[in-house]
Amino acid sequence: MLAPWQPLLEWWFGWGANAQAVADEKNTLWFGKHHDDEARAHFGELVEQALAGGLDEWQQSPQGWLGLLILLDQLPRMIYRDTPRAFEGDRRAQVLAMQGLQKGWDFQLLPIQRVFVLLVLEHAEVLDWQNQCIERYQALLDEQPEGSRRLFEGFLDYAEQHQRVIARFGRFPQRNLVLDRPSTSEEMDFLLEPGSRF
Hints:
Blueprint: H1 6-13, H2 19-31, H3 36-51, H4 62-79, H5 90-103, H6 111-122, H7 127-142, H8 146-169, H9 185-191
Helix pairs in contact: 3-4, 4-5, 4-6, 5-6, 6-7, 7-8
């Protein structure tokens, strides 16, 4: 019998033979803006259940845990893009991510799947979690064969950019407008810089 999270994981990761093949196939899904309607149509109900605190049974296995993290962290950013609801699942996702990491569940996932566990910490406006994210990305990079290193170096670099913003501001200034938070003058200057709105 198909696990309830399997269709989501198949849609999110595809069937690439290695991490680079998966990334090549799915990069526009992960980091573009052209699949929001598809995400809503296929997984909108599951996202709503997750945001309401449901799907606890998904936490009983590493694969289900990963699926729940994607429902809480990644898909709201697509389905509710540019609204406060995009970040509604973050806190639960971050707590669940830390719980699973403490159990070592990330080591039961493929390297490219582990990236999306660490992205939960990368999205956190908590410096300690950002620092852990960097450490774990570095460890993940160190495990990779030569052919995958450039891909994982990119993930680490992006995480380091996020960490520097949290170290400087304690939050992501690019979220301020959506979350109706007043920006400081320093934050407004920062948001004028190229690449500040990842």
